[in-house]
Amino acid sequence: ADETFLPKAIDPEVHTLEDGTFRAFFTVMDREAHRHMKPFKPHELMTAVSQDGIHWEVEGLILTTQHIPFSVTTDPSALKLKDGSWRIYFGAVSEQGETGNIATVRWWPLD
What CA–CA distance (Å, rounded) separates 34 from 7? Predict the structure, then answer.
């Protein structure tokens, strides 16, 4: 690996944006590095941006399990929509122990 841009992050998906910069969607699993996430669940969806694809700035949390009926979210896959928002698909499991679901959320970047 050339460089680690966020330790304990998994399942990255990177998109090249219209201006040549990059946006990554990923799952984070690091309780210690993200103590501000209350309550912490083992899988939260996050995003980061980069000018060169090597050095990344984490923008923050896209989705936490606190406000959805799932206890685990993972494997994000995203499509950019015409209005500038993103449709993010992800694997999800409820606390009742279902085998899995594919769920979706619409997300708007801050910029």
Answer: 11
**Distance between CA atoms of 12 and 24, rounded to whole angstroms?**
6
Bridge-based pairing state of the strands 9-16 and 22-28:
antiparallel
pLDDT in tens, 4-59: 667 778 889 999 999 999 999 998 876 665 566 565 555 789 999 999 998 889 88
Distances (CA, A) of 69 to 49, 64, 65: 28, 10, 7
pTM: 0.81
The encoded tokens of residue 64 equal 């936490």
What is the full DSSP assignment across 6-62?
STTEEEEEEEE-TTS-EEEEEEE--TTTTTTSSS--S-EEEEEEESSSSSEEEEEEE
Q: Which of 108, 62, 105, 111 is nearest to 85 (CA)?
A: 108
